[in-house]
Amino acid sequence: MTIAGGIILIMLGAILTWAVEFDIAGFDVNVVGVILMLGGLVWLLFAIYRFSVARRAVAPTTTVIEDPVTHRRVYEERHYDDPPVV
Fold this sequence. Notes:
Elements: H1 2-18, E1 23-24, E2 27-28, H2 29-55, E3 61-66, E4 73-78
Antiparallel strand pairs: 1-2, 3-4
């Protein structure tokens, strides 16, 4: 709900800013709407940054195995998104 939460806050802030005409002494609905829109924008940018970091966090691993008969080293590289080798 990270990206959706940011979009919902932006929409709610826009509704309060431009569509609601409500007056209470000492309380401005337009300012609350602008604050919600800015908070939603920050939330949305943080969510996009978080998704971009999470996608590149997995690195491939390399395993070195020594063959007992020939005493050669065998390099095996596996990626987590590759299908299993049977």
